Every structure is written in C-alpha cells, then in structure tokens.
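Section 5.1 Outputs to date
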Amino acid sequence: MQEYVSDTLVGNLVDNRYQVQSRLARGGMSTVYLATDQRLERDVALKVLHPHLADDPQFLHRLGREAKAAARLSHPHVVGVLDQGEDGRLAYLVMEFIKGHTLRDVLKEKGALSPRLALALIDPVVEGLGAAHAAGMIHRDIKPENVLIADDGRIKLGDFGLARAISTSTSTGALIGTVAYLSPELVLGKQADARSDIYSVGIMLYEMITGRQPFDGEVPIQVAYQHVNSTVGPPSAHVPGLAAEIDELVQWCTDRDPDKRPVDGGALLSELRHIRTNLSDAELDLQPPAAIRSILPPAAPPARQPGGTAPAPDAQETAYKQPPDGMPTEVYGGLQQPTEMISRHSGNPTTVMSNAPRRPAYGPLSPPEESAYQDGPGYGAPQDVATAPSKRVQRKLEKDEVKARQRAAATPTKTLHEGNPRRRGLLWIVLLVVAALLAAAAGWFFGMGPGSPGTIPPVANKTVAQAQDLLRTAGFQSTVKDVFNDDVSPGLVVSSEPKAGEVIRKFQPVSLAVSKGPELFPLAELTGKSLDEAKTTLNGAHMALGPITEKFDETAPAGTVLAQAPGSGNPVRHGTPVALTVSKGPQPIPVPDVRGQEQDAAVSALEAAGLKAVVAPERVNDRKVPKGSVVAQDPASGNLTKGGAVTLTISDGPKLVDVPSFIGKQATEAQDALEKLGFKVQIDEILGGFFGTVRAQDPVNTKVPEGSTITLTVV
C-alpha cells in the first residue's frame, strides 16, 4: 500500500462523521481515502468524486440510486457499500475497508498461476458476480485491480455502482472501462448485460493462467480493435499440457457473440465448480513454464517508440504514476490497468482515444511471435506480424521453402521394379473388397450403430429412472453423481453432461447430476453480540444480513443483538438472510414536575412513572409552599431511564418570628420595625389617629409565621 503526498482533505472531517486519515488512490473518476467513521469507530474507504462529476445533479441522482442498489447487495464476496452522501461540493461513497492486497499484486508476485490456484481465486469472484447478476446489477469493470484479497484470506469484488452510474451519465460517445478487459459489445457501444462481465472474467482468467493478456497494442485502439475482430486463443498455446476443459472454459467466456457465453455469473459458477471437481490433481497442479512465471522481468528496459528511441520522461512518469480508480489496497506501477473514459465516434472502435500511455503487454512472447516482437534480450516495439514480419522470420520462411523443394526433388516418382501385372490386379481387388467391407462397417457404426449421432434429450427435474429411460431410448448409456443444489428437489436430475440438445455419438457416456437438495449449514449464535460483530459472523459464515428491527431494552446496551430469525443452530443455506432485533438501550422516561404537591402525592407520581423518589433529609422554610409539600426537585425536567432517582426537598412552611410589642409607640415607628421583620402591617385608626400612638396590637409578644399580618390600633 502506498500513501500519496499531502492533500487538503487529509485531516478534515467529512459530513461531520468521517475523519480523513490519508489518501490512498486517485483515478479518473474519484479519489480514495482511508477514513474513520467516528459514529461507529471503524475504518472505512471514502471515495470522493472528482468535481466535474460532483457538480452534475443528474449524475448524483443516478449515483445515489446505484449506491442504494449496491448497499442492498449483502454478499461475503462483494465489497459492501455503507453510505453515500454530499458535504457541500463534495460527493462521496463510503465502502467497506479491506486491509490486504489485490489480485494484481498476486499476479505481479507469482506471474502465471497453476490451474488449481487460478480456479480457487476466481471462484469467489464469480460467486459474488453471480449474486450481483441475480439482483439485477452489472459491474462493467472486472479486472484484477478490483479483486481484493484480505489479510485473513477473504476475497471480495469491489467497485460496484460507480461504473454503472458513470456509464449512464455520460453520452453515447463515451466508453467507461479498462480496455484490456472490455467486451466487444461495450467497445461497439451496444447494450451491456451480465454476459459483458462474463467476457471480462474470461480475459482475467486467461491472464491468471498464462501470465499475459490475450490482446496487446501500443495504444488502446489496437486492443479494442482486437476485442471486436479477433478470437481469444486457448491458454494452452502458452501453457503446454493445460487441460482442454480450461481452454474450453476460457473460450466459452470470451466468445465474441454474447449469446454463446454463459448467461450470467451463476451459470458460469456451476460450470467452473464442475471443472474443478473433475480435473485430476496433476492437471490442477500443472506448473506454467518457467519462461512465463514472472509477469514483469526483473529489470525491464523502457519500451521503445517507433524508430528505436526511448519514451519521453513525462510519458514514462505518467504511465507509472497515474493511479487507477480502485480500492485502497491498489499499488501503482506499470502493470496497473486504470479505468478509462474512452471516446467513441459513431461506434467505430478505430477512433478510440486514451488519456494515458499504454506500455506493451508484459511477459515473454512465445514463438514464432517472439522473433517478430523482440530484438535481442530487451523489449522492442511490437509490430503486426501478419503485415510486417521481421527480417529474421522472412529468412526462416525462405529457408523452409528451399528445403521443401529439395525433399520433393529427391523423392522418386517411378519405381524401378514394376512387378507382375496380374498379381497387382488381384491385390487391388482384395484391397477394394476390404475397403468396401470397412466402409460398410463404418457406415453401420456411424449411421445406425453406437457411433451414430444422437441428441441429448432434456432430463432436468425428472427422476433418475425417467431420465435413464429417456437416454436409453435415445441410445445413450448414463452414469449418476449426486450434487448439492438449491433449486431442484432432492432425487431429481439437475442437468446432464453433455447438456440437453447437444449432438454426440451414442457410444459417448452421459453423466446425470442428481440433486441432494441444498447444502445446509448451522446458523451461529448472534444474540448478545454487537451489531458489527453479528455482521462479521454472518459474513464469515456466507450468510446474508436480513432486516434489522430496533427496540428499547432495559438491560441490554444500545447496539446489542436481542434476537435473530432463523434462530441459532438451525441448518440453513448459504446466503440465507438473517433478521436481527437490536437494542436501542433503556427507554427514556420524561421526569414529571411534582413541585408544590404534598410529599406522598409527589412520591406516588414519580413511582407511577417508573422512577425512584428520594426525599432529602433536611427540610427548608418557604413562605409560599405549605409545610409537608415539595418545594424543589432534582432533576426538575428532562429524561431518565427506568429506576432513575429524583431527589425531593420538602417545605417546613414559613419561618416563625417573634412579634415584639409596640403599644404606646408611634405608629410609623412600629410599622417600619414590623415590616423589617418580614410582617405585613394593617393600621386601624380611632378618631382619625390624631395622636399617631399605638393603643393596641394583635398579635403581640408571640411567634407567628414570617409574612403574617400584624394589626395596629392607632389613636
């Protein structure tokens, strides 16, 4: 993994949630960052779109729709899309972060792979692709850079959604993809479907087995032209001894006619696993020749331009530094295959333009191409052998022609001993009779006998006895093998090999695959785990995540799995969706306001709400709150969980104050003194209160509550 130079986004917070840690990759459509989801505290891959895409509202609408579709695709071999959004002028996708490396890294390290390793690596890719096709999704950019291999061995297919959104938002004159893996129909601007992905898988499998791509050229136009007009050759041309079944598999996937390819990833997966099961250990462990085990030579010299000059430094630098549009585990180098936007005019593949230089195809070339493509030990500029053969090849052809003429001149055309004519005539008669008998026998054998052709009848979803009767009536002998199958009932025939409708000789055996029903696996216990732990467990068990229901729980912390359906231990198929009930934590309870209520009533109200009332040991005097009532509570508002405590402070009523006697004193003096003590004063005047002297006072010389009214009688 390689971290780029400084970036203004590094260190910033995107959408108040994603803390950007470092920049990992930059491609033609987006830049990928390593970020931390602060809400869930986990690392994610943050893909930020380039401004020219983020400013297009129509594209953002399509991207959101594709991201939602990709997010609904929960499969152990597909990189999960976790989130999508906009932050100002930033538009981004959040994807599962896979710590590890890519299939491209494996090819760079190992070169050509053994059939066993190649089929094992491609199997989960095809399984994930099959799930996507079943969900109505097309990838459009299958390549080794998008096959991610985690450090724990998990294999996932990444970059769903973006290529499709890009392709639907650009004009018909633009083509999105990696030219080395593009299907012919995409090059010609026709509608792409699941079979276009199958073509790319076939090209990738060819490269894994041979250490080289089937088509190469100095510019993408040459590669695109070959996709449309050339046929992918058998990998065994470069790996002698390779099983014919693998040749057939690769050429089946890469047929130029989409109707002759597997219909989708599911159909390809079935055939792929059938081949893996039936090949011998020797065929699976076949090692490629040492000459093609390394994809890149240890110190490859720079590719020459026409005329024998080395490429310009800028071009060379671009070829090695421009990163592909991929996941964070990608590494940059001459072997990378960036996703390109290629201009197409009127569907003519010869006008394809590239925005980056392309190096010649890697790996040594096999004879006779080697002599035409290389001059000495270094890499020369590739030529079209059919139109411009090298002088060395031309000289070799001329020498072979001279030798053929010399052999023909040395062969006698007339024998020196002619023999007996009668004996020769008898010999000819015998030979003719024998030939006639052989011809008759061959005619019977190939016309009516075991060697005659016959059409395999359809036997799917029939019992074994019914299928064997149909085959026997058609003149075939059959064998039976049991297989797991999710769709066909146990005991019924899944398919035949060769398939129904194929014409073969009747002496050739026919194998019937009989369903054992779906292969079932016990479901793990998920209750008590966190939601993230449950997702990881389902992913590792090849199960799908079903609907998530949240509810309050007084004992389980938020995010804890409370229940699952189906339950643990139940045998289920791979890919079965498992519904989860997840805790939202204790239910919040609003705190009622009980201030001013009597103590017993306040306690009852709190307990009825599910809260606990705690009475403060000390009371306080309050002139406004009667004795025995609640004068204060803590907390006074907000929410608590069940059993939360509310502290109540009880009033002891108003404070008692001594009332001194003011009889015989002036009324004004008495009133001021009483008011300072906190009393209210009422003055009753007799005879107009002419003298202003207090004659009587009520109450007097006793304790009364603060704020009480004192009546003064004034004369």
